[in-house]
Design a protein that fits this description.
Oligomer: single chain
Strand order of the largest sheet: 3-2-1-4-6-5
Shape: globular
Order of helices and strands: HEHEHEHEHHEEH
Helix content: 40-55%
Structural class: alpha/beta
Strand content: 5-15%
Number of helices: 7
Length: 188
C-alpha cells in the first residue's frame, strides 16, 4: 500500500497533463491527425508524452513538428535529435521545419510569427484539425503581466485563449511545476 501511494503521487502530474490533453481533443474525430509543437523544452516534452499516451488509447493519429529558428549554434543538430526522440515516442509524421527569423517585431515577436506560420503550414499540409501548444498557467500569467506593462489595458487581461483556430493550449490551467514534473524520466 505504501509503495502504491508513492507510485500514484509520482504519476499525478502525468495524469493531470494527460487529462488536459484528452479534454482538449474531445471534439476531434478519433481518426484525425493531431500535431504537437515540440521545442524540446520540458513543457513541450511533457505535452508530447501526454499526446502520445492519449492518442494511442483514443485512436488519434499523433504527429509532431519542431521549428528550428537557427538562432543558436547547434540548433539544427538539436532539432534533428529531438525529431529522432519524437519518432521513438511513436509520432508519425515528425517534421523539423527550418525558418528564417526576420522582421520588425523584435526577436521574440519575429520568432513567434514565423513559428506560427510554420506550424500553420504543417497543419494545412497534413490536414490536421489541431496543433497542441505547451503554454502553462505560468505562461498565461506572464503574458497578462507583460501586456499590462506594455499598456495594453483591459485587452491584456484576457491572456491567451485555450483554442484559436487549429491551435490548442491544453496546459493553460496547469502550473508549470506540474507540467514539468510530468516529463517522463527517459526524456530528461
Amino acid at each position: 500500500p505504501a509503495v502504491a501511494a508513492v507510485h500514484s503521487v509520482e504519476q499525478a502530474p502525468q495524469l493531470a497533463v494527460r487529462r488536459a490533453v484528452r479534454e482538449s481533443l474531445r471534439d476531434v474525430p478519433t481518426d484525425r491527425l493531431v500535431l504537437v509543437a515540440c521545442s524540446g523544452g520540458a513543457d513541450s516534452l511533457a505535452l508530447a508524452a501526454a499526446l502520445s499516451h492519449v492518442a494511442a488509447r483514443n485512436l488519434h493519429r499523433a504527429g509532431a513538428v519542431t521549428v528550428d529558428h537557427g538562432l543558436q549554434p547547434g540548433s539544427a543538430e538539436r532539432a534533428r535529435s529531438l525529431a529522432a526522440t519524437l519518432i521513438v515516442m511513436g509520432f508519425d509524421p515528425v517534421e523539423v521545419v527550418y525558418v528564417r527569423v526576420d522582421g520588425t517585431e523584435g526577436p521574440e515577436g519575429n520568432a513567434r510569427r514565423v513559428r506560427f506560420a510554420a506550424l500553420g503550414a504543417a497543419a494545412e499540409r497534413h490536414a490536421a484539425p489541431a496543433v497542441l501548444l505547451g503554454q502553462t498557467r505560468d505562461d498565461q500569467a506572464e503574458t497578462v503581466l507583460l501586456g499590462l506593462a506594455r499598456g495594453s489595458g483591459a485587452r491584456s487581461l484576457a491572456g491567451m485563449a485555450h483554442v484559436v483556430g487549429v491551435y490548442r493550449r491544453p496546459l493553460l490551467d496547469l502550473p508549470r511545476a506540474t507540467v514539468r514534473a510530468a516529463v517522463p524520466e527517459r526524456l530528461t
